[in-house]
Design brief:
- The protein is α+β, with helices and mostly antiparallel strands and about 600 residues long.
- The chain folds into five domains: about 180 residues, 3-Layer(aba) Sandwich (Rossmann fold); about 80 residues, Translation factors (Elongation Factor Tu (Ef-tu), domain 3, Beta Barrel), CATH 2.40.30; about 70 residues, Elongation Factor G (Translational Gtpase), domain 3 (Alpha-Beta Plaits), CATH 3.30.70.870; about 110 residues, 2-Layer Sandwich (Alpha-Beta Plaits), CATH 3.30.70.240; about 110 residues, Alpha-Beta Plaits (2-Layer Sandwich), CATH 3.30.70.2570.
- About 25% of the residues lie in helices and about 35% in strands.
- The radius of gyration is 27 Å and the shape is globular.
- The N and C termini lie far apart (about 55 Å).
- The structure holds guanosine-5'-triphosphate.
- It is a peripheral membrane protein.
- One of its GO terms (molecular function) is GTP binding.
- It comes from Salinimicrobium catena.
- It holds the Pfam family LepA_C.
């Protein structure tokens, strides 16, 4: 145990976490030339293209320091707020963290939120000032910022460049010198923390764990505490660039486990692995069932593809336990699914994976958060509202609650005004304002989560000219005034366009939705009135004017096969269009409410 170090790298997005991880692998000789490729740890195509780490992974390095052999386990953490629970579990598996700060950008919102998570878990923090090679780097100033934040000595901050390799040896020495070795009980019953899992279609779910007490052996009967299920440890091993099977993984070390589990949802991040016959009395604290935060409907563009969509969603769920879905139907869109996501990025990822990996073309409806509604009749019984149609009749409604978050924004002093106005417009209440330096300010707000779903990121970027970073964490439910805004096309309510909105926003957003839909809905042979309504009350109206000329006239007569070809072509072009009544609605219209400004 004395020779094990478990650490993670925490950083704001793009501050160089993955590049630094690659460097460390390189310097410890953990990668052969053949295996060298950019961003080694980001194995999913999607991750690589987006340049962000979505799932955390772990990797083991061997390193000789002052003549002694050490094992360094690097546990990678996902870089986006949607996945903060996974970050917290990865952090809980470590004794130390490299806190990477970009020498040009300085401390940003996720630097701080990740640092707090690390400090809550008593991690030893090694501050790394990365990208000092950049001409725009400000090493002295940013070192001061770090010293202020951590209360450490300036000499503890390691100047580095993951690009040129500067400082890498110092970082490796610091990992060994400053991070304490693990301190578990070798003789105690097995107690291991699951910090990640990966779905492998051939081998079943691979579970990544950190042994806290005891030993996990190949062939052992084990038990997952939260799910209460028993398994046989078919294979255990350490995580080099490839998996290396071992007979046992001991106290303090990190490894993988294969049990033949076929579904991701059986393996819960944060759960404890113990021995089935001699179980530990104490589970690792901090286990939570991850709850979806954002809900939206997903429908096949072609109604006939419903069963294919179901099969694809089931496969996706096998390897992404945080995705939940239940069948729902819409008068406008037919049969589809109401899906729960961790956040907006997660929603985008699922939509993209459905298209890329399963070749499905889908329509996603207006996302909403999960509300709690109570009726006069049963004022103590919570009704979960994950869908506009779940909201009880206004007359029967006693009260509604909506999820709130604590939002942390770091920006330049120049932009404090516009950022505050934006947050107040988004129903935020400022709770704290701290000048980190004379130029940089940290603002905290209590805000409804729903306001983040609607165009918040883009607006924040615009009002701060890109100089604002943002992070959030849930702080529970609070009273809300909610209404359902319906959209009528040609006099008919299109249920899939309904949105749940705060009453103060309803008129404004209803109006903007009508304007946006007017832009998006193609003109047809007749006028199409677009109306927004709350109950029977119309709150806004626009009209898509009829086409003046009959453009399809050309199609009549002539060669029938040519005409069919033309129709085929049109059909392809119409992918993502949905005929509702006699009006054609493009996909963008269903998400229009998200892009109103
Ligand atoms: P996420 O995975 O999205 O959180 O990003 P990350 O923190 O892993 O950042 P990543 O390693 O992808 O680096 C972001 C960008 O910064 C990439 O274009 C890197 O090439 C660049 N970069 C990283 N380290 C350095 C450095 O030391 N110097 C310079 N000049 N560029 C760097």
């Amino acid at each position: 145990m004395k020779h094990i170090r478990n650490f993670c790298i925490i950083a704001h997005i793009d501050h160089g976490k993955s590049t630094l991880a690659d460097r460390l692998l390189d310097s410890t000789g953990s990668v052969t030339d053949r295996e060298k490729q950019e961003q080694l740890l980001d194995s999913m195509d999607l991750e690589r293209e987006r340049g962000i780490t979505i799932k955390s992974h772990a990797i083991q390095m061997d390193y000789t320091y002052k003549g002694e052999q050490y094992v360094l386990n690097l546990i990678d953490t996902p870089g986006h707020v949607d996945f903060s629970y996974e970050v917290s579990r990865s952090i809980a598996a470590c004794e130390g963290a490299l806190l990477v700060v970009d020498a040009a950008q300085s401390i940003q919102a996720q630097t701080i939120s990740n640092l707090y998570l690390a400090l809550e878990n008593d991690l030893e923090i090694i501050p790394v000032l990365n990208k000092v090679d950049l001409p725009s780097a400000n090493p002295e100033e940013v070192t001061d910022d770090i010293v202020d934040l951590l209360g450490c000595d300036p000499s503890e901050v390691i100047p580095a460049s993951a690009k040129t390799g500067l400082g890498i040896d110092e970082i490796l020495s610091a990992i060994i010198e400053r991070i304490p070795p693990p301190s578990g009980k070798v003789d105690a019953p097995l107690r291991a923390l699951i910090f990640d899992s990966v779905y492998n279609p051939f081998r079943g779910v691979e579970t990544y764990f950190r042994v806290i007490n005891g030993t996990i052996k190949k062939g052992q009967q084990i038990k997952f505490v939260a799910t209460g299920k028993n398994y046989n440890a078919d294979e255990v091993g350490t995580l080099k660039l490839k998996q290396l099977p071992r007979n046992e993984i001991k106290t303090g070390d990190v490894g993988y486990l294969i049990t033949g589990i076929k579904e991701a949802k059986e393996v819960k991040v944060g759960d404890t692995i113990t021995d089935a016959k001699n179980p530990t009395t104490e589970a690792v604290p901090g286990f939570e069932d991850v709850k979806p935060m954002v809900f939206a409907g997903i429908y096949p563009v072609d109604t006939e593809d419903y069963e294919d969509l179901r099969a694809s969603m089931e496969k996706l769920q096998l390897n992404d336990a945080s995705l939940v879905f239940t069948p729902e139907s819409s008068a406008a869109l037919g049969f589809g699914f109401r899906c729960g996501f961790l956040g907006m990025l997660h929603l985008e990822i699922i939509q993209e994976r459905l298209e890329r990996e399963f070749d499905m073309t889908v329509i996603t409806t207006v996302p909403n958060v999960s509300y709690h509604a109570y009726t006069h009749k049963h004022p103590d019984e919570v009704i979960l509202v994950n869908n506009p149609s779940d909201l009880p009749e206004p007359s029967s409604l006693d009260r509604v609650e909506e999820p709130y978050i604590k939002a942390t924004i770091i920006t330049k002093a120049d932009f404090v005004g516009p950022v505050m106005s934006l947050c107040i417009e988004k129903r935020g209440q400022i709770t704290n304002q701290t000048y980190l330096t004379p130029e940089r300010v940290e603002l905290s707000f209590d805000m409804p989560l729903a306001e983040i779903v609607f165009d918040f990121y883009d607006r924040l970027k615009t009002v701060s000219r890109g100089y604002a970073s943002f992070d959030y964490s849930p702080i529970g439910m609070r009273p809300s005034k909610l209404v359902k805004v319906d959209v009528l096309l040609n006099g008919n309510t299109v249920d899939a366009l309904s949105a749940l909105l705060h009453v103060d926003n309803a008129y404004d957003i209803g109006k903007k939705m009508c304007e946006k839909l007017k832009e998006l809905i193609p003109r047809q042979q007749f006028d199409i009135p677009i109306q927004a309504a709350i109950g029977a009350k119309i709150i806004a109206r626009e009209t898509v004017k009829a086409l003046r000329k009959d453009v399809t006239a050309k199609c009549y007569g002539g060669d029938i096969s040519r005409k069919r070809k033309l129709l085929e072509k049109q059909k392809k072009g119409k992918k993502r269009m949905r005929q509702v009544g006699n009006v054609e609605i493009p996909q963008e219209a269903f998400m229009a409410v998200l892009k109103l400004n």
